[in-house]
Amino acid sequence: MFSIARFLAACLVMCLVFGVLVFGMLLMNPVSFINSYPPEIQAEYYRSQSKEAARRKLTVIMGITKAAALTAFLFLFAWMAKWAGADTFGEGLMAVYGYGLVLAVFDTCFLDWVLFPNIRRIRLPGTEHMDREYRQKWFHVKAMLPMLPLFAVGGVAAALIMVWIW
Fold first, then answer.
1. Please, which contacts does 102-110 make with residues 24 or more away whose CB atoms are closer than 8 Å?
2. Which of 23, 34, 80, 121 is most buried by its number of CB atoms within 10 A?
3. Could you tell me which of 99, 61, 88 has the C-alpha nearest to residue 1?
4. How far apart are CA 163 and CA 79, in angstroms?
5. What is the pTM of this model?
6. Measured between alpha carbons, how far is residue 122 from residues 49, 95, 165 in Å?
7. pLDDT digit string (tens) for 21-51?
């Protein structure tokens, strides 16, 4: 039987772990998520650090990292859905879609809108002065909106994994 309490507990833990991982990676190396920054910030970083030649390499590395993370999230979300009590494909799909929505809202509204613009230590080198660009809320919303239908596709994949494995 599906448990809303377990679903919400999983959401809370998921957001905390995701926030710590992302923030920790940014503290170690602010360039970790360079492709997620507004284009003006990326351009200023590459220009000010004379790294235009590294741009393509960093884009490929980020793509590979995102693909690996997506695969891990599919299995993790499938397990979380089962833990929350999802027994059918439909319940698994709804749970996984819910996890995706919660994570996207947390990432956008807390990490992108609150932490990134206000903690200078995690700004890209050479872009520390770009306060207005770091506070572009609409940029992050526009980046998140196309993901909503993709969460459904990921939800289907994770629900299938849930049904097949558990």
1. 102/11, 102/14, 102/15, 103/14, 103/15, 103/18, 104/144, 104/147, 104/148, 104/151, 106/15, 106/18, 106/19, 107/18, 107/22, 107/144, 108/140, 108/141, 108/143, 108/144, 110/15, 110/19
2. 80
3. 88
4. 10
5. 0.88
6. 16, 32, 39
7. 999 999 998 888 888 899 999 999 999 998 8
CB within 8 Å of 4: residues ≥ 6 apart: none
The terminus-to-terminus CA distance of the chain in angstroms comes to 14
Q: What is the pLDDT of residues 136-158, one digit of tens each?
A: 999 999 999 999 999 999 999 99
Exposed / middle / buried, residue 83 (Cβ in 10 Å: 0-12, 13-18, 19+): middle
Helix (H) / strand (E) containing 132? helix 131-134
Is 46 within 8 Å of 147 (Cβ atoms)? no
Enter the tokens of residue 23: 């923030």
78's CB contacts (< 8 A; 6+ apart) are: 92, 96, 158, 159, 161, 162, 165, 166
- CA distance to 57, 65, 88, 100, 149, per residue, from 158 (Å): 30, 19, 12, 11, 14
